[in-house]
Automatic annotation (TrEMBL):
GO terms for cellular component: mitochondrial matrix; ribonucleoprotein granule
Superkingdom assignment: Eukaryota
Example GO molecular function: RNA binding
Keyword terms of this UniProt record: Membrane, Transmembrane, Transmembrane helix
Protein name: RAP domain-containing protein
Domain RAP residues, every copy: 568-624
Biological process, per Gene Ontology: mitochondrial RNA processing; regulation of mitochondrial mRNA stability
UniProt keyword annotation of GTP-binding present: no
Natural source organism: Daphnia pulex (Water flea)
Transmembrane residue ranges: 665-689
Length: 690
């Protein structure tokens, strides 16, 4: 064959081994005429009167290019042969790869034992495979996606697979669509959803009510990647469909559904559905995994945030599942202990068992978990030797160097933990010295501003002020006066008044109404007024005097000064009392305790008791002997007996006292006695003057 090579541009169509490839490049052919070259290119099957394989112009071309034996007059620099040329020549004239070769090699490489995924061979396979994705079948694409779960650092191929799947998705049926999106989900390469997952969520948003049970589960798990429900997704439709297929789903599937709702920051509004989910958990909790139980408990807590609107079955969770505490890990136990916290319900047995488990596994517990358990203990009214041991163990745990990195990584959690210990009247010097050290305060303020943890400054102020009231002997680091003043100013608001009722929240309106009631009894010119007695509390209290003197808010009583009778009415809002108990919770209990320590006579007025009573009951007064209640038919015999015993007790032993719920204040030295009665059984509040 003539070795003179001529350079001609055209598009070659090579038919060989029953497949066609088109190559757009400047090729080199023999110096034969164009018709002769065409006859060489289109060699019919079964005929032998054509050039043999060894004289094939493409073989000659490859050899000439490799050996650089090209005619001097027609030489072209090697640099002009770009990467597509090299790739195509390799495929056409090298080993004659079929479209399955790279795919098969990739699968074989993945399935080999001791595969080095960082090797050059693996990188070349992935690179070559990326260029032929469009030639693969749908099942082969999904197989490759599945294999990527064991290959580290596969983001480039993942994105190309995602792009290819999006192109094909318009022709896919629902089964292939869900299969591909679900396989992508198993990769867990990123918290951000891929384009295919976005497409499936948006395109099937209006078909939720026609989905099968398993399709609904997969759809919600894919939706979880968004971290919120898109506007096109109707949550009511999802809840309705879930109600219909609930009995067809396993407890594990329900755990995935609950996790999707929780991660998207959504609650289930359908209380009947919440109740049915709770019932399924109560039945299957002993036989399912910890992750499923934890996911369901999280959603139950979020779906029960309103104490007046919740599924009644939620209150059965702790009593019925507390016997499984030894079987579960600490993350699940935290969810169990706090599942009813928004409903103001704390189960003593559950708290005790969870606390004991944490005492055993204290080293394994995360700071965040310890903070949450501290919150449950501080807010509840439960106390036991295990609780005391827990607070002591916390001080020892965080005094060591092992926890220092975690403390500085999550300063808001550590400050909250220390604050809950103070609320529970446990002052651990180890915790206090860390929380109030100057460098940690600076770090905490910076962290709070960066991540919008506004409660951090309020908790620091609460810790510092509580130390001054209840632990004046403490000599460790304290909050600087500048920071203390700045934090107080940040959270302090003007005293509530009735000039503009629309600006009052429910608690402020309660305090104003309570103040007006006290003035109606003591007289309009009485010294009763709203006063901020403690800088770390954002709600004022009503103070008044029984001896006619005006109360000075800066006046601090002492236990030796029994001639001065100063009283404070503390308004207990609706979320300050535990359910099924007449005891004040956490912050309210601390407030009463600290006011009592300051020398004030404290009377707590529950919000619901006050507003459930009529005005006549609030202003009820009696002029006869204190132990004669027959004139008032609305007093029960039990109430009369209680008041009589209280009068006798405080008459025999005059002293300062505080009411934790409804104990009346009686002063033997005052010109009259005020009995403020808030009855649990009668749900009425009475203010009686003798």
């Amino acid at each position: 064959m003539d070795k003179v090579i001529r350079r001609i541009p055209h598009v070659l169509s090579l038919t060989n081994q029953n497949f066609t490839r088109r190559i757009e490049w400047r090729s080199w052919l023999s110096s034969k005429s164009i018709p002769a070259n065409k006859s060489l290119l289109f060699k019919p099957d079964g005929k032998d009167n054509y050039i043999s394989d060894k004289d094939d112009p493409f073989t000659l071309l490859l050899n000439n290019l490799t050996q650089k034996k090209i005619h001097a007059n027609n030489r072209v620099p090697t640099a002009s042969l770009d990467e597509p040329l090299k790739s195509c020549t390799t495929q056409l004239m090298g080993k004659q790869f079929s479209r399955h070769d790279f795919y098969n090699q990739f699968i074989e490489f993945i399935e080999k034992q001791d595969t080095d995924f960082k090797s050059e061979e693996c990188n070349n396979l992935i690179e070559n495979l990326s260029t032929t994705l469009h030639l693969l079948s749908d099942e082969q694409l999904i197989k490759i996606i599945d294999c990527l779960s064991i290959i580290p650092g596969n983001s480039s191929l993942t994105l190309k697979l995602d792009e290819e799947c999006c192109k094909r998705s318009t022709k896919w049926d629902k089964n292939i669509y869900f299969k591909a999106a679900w396989t992508f989900l198993q990769l867990k390469t990123s918290n951000r959803p891929l384009h295919l997952q976005k497409k499936i969520v948006l395109e099937f948003a209006q078909e939720v009510q026609q989905m099968t049970p398993q399709e609904l589960v997969k759809y919600l798990v894919i939706l979880k990647q968004f971290r919120k429900f898109p506007k096109t997704v109707n949550k009511i439709h999802i809840e309705n469909r879930l109600s219909k297929v609930l009995d067809s789903l396993s407890i594990e599937d329900l755990g995935l559904v609950c996790s999707a709702f929780f991660e998207c920051n959504e609650a289930i509004k359908n209380l009947e559905l919440v109740g049915r989910l709770v019932e399924r958990l109560l039945i299957g909790a002993s036989s399912t995994d910890d992750k499923t139980v934890g996911s369901m408990l999280k959603l139950f807590r979020r779906s029960s945030s309103d104490p007046g609107h919740y599924a009644k079955q939620v209150l059965d969770i702790q009593p019925m599942l507390c016997n499984l505490v030894p079987n579960w890990n600490l993350k699940v136990l935290i969810q169990l202990a706090a599942v009813c916290s928004s409903l103001l319900f704390y189960h003593p047995v559950t708290i005790e068992l969870v606390t004991q488990k944490f005492l055993i596994c204290m080293k394994e517990a995360r700071l965040k978990d310890l903070e949450r358990l501290s919150m449950v203990i501080a807010m509840s009214t439960y106390h036991s030797p295990s609780i005391d041991l827990f607070w002591e163990a916390l001080g020892k745990e965080f005094a060591g160097k092992e926890r220092q990195n975690e403390i500085y990584q999550y300063p808001h959690s550590f400050i909250s933990l220390t604050n809950y210990a103070v609320v529970a009247n446990h002052y651990s010097e180890q915790l206090l010295r860390i929380a109030l050290s100057p460098d940690f305060v600076i770090h905490s303020k910076s962290y709070a501003e960066k991540f919008s943890y506004q409660s951090t400054k309020r908790e620091l102020l609460n810790i510092d002020c509580s130390l001054g009231i209840e632990r004046p002997e403490y000599c460790g680091p304290r909050l600087s006066p500048i920071d203390a003043k700045a934090f107080e100013k940040l959270y302090r608001k003007p005293l509530p008044n009735m000039d503009d009722p629309s600006l009052l929240n429910s608690h402020d309106a309660f305090l104003v109404s309570l103040l007006n009631t006290v003035k109606d009894i003591l007289g309009e010119n009485s010294p009763a007024s709203l006063v901020y007695l403690q800088p770390h509390f954002t709600t004022p209290d009503i103070v008044f005097s029984l001896d006619g003197y005006k109360v000075n808010k800066s006046f601090t009583l002492s236990k030796d000064n029994c001639g001065v009778q100063r009283c404070v009415l503390v308004g207990g809002s609706r979320n300050m009392f535990s359910r099924f108990s007449d005891q004040p919770m956490g912050p309210l209990r601390m407030k009463v305790r600290q006011l009592q320590c300051m020398g004030w006579n404290v009377i707590v007025i529950p919000w619901n008791e006050f507003f459930n009573a009529s005005k006549r009951d609030r202003l009820a007064h009696h002029t006869d002997a204190p132990n004669d209640f027959s004139a008032h038919s609305y007093y029960t015999e039990a109430t009369a007996e209680y008041i009589t015993e209280t009068v006798e007790y405080y008459t025999e032993a005059p002293k300062f006292f505080s009411t934790t719920y409804c104990s009346p204040f009686l002063s033997p030295t005052a010109s009259f006695i005020i009995v403020l009665m808030l009855m649990c059984d009668l749900l009425m509040a009475r203010l009686i003057i003798w």
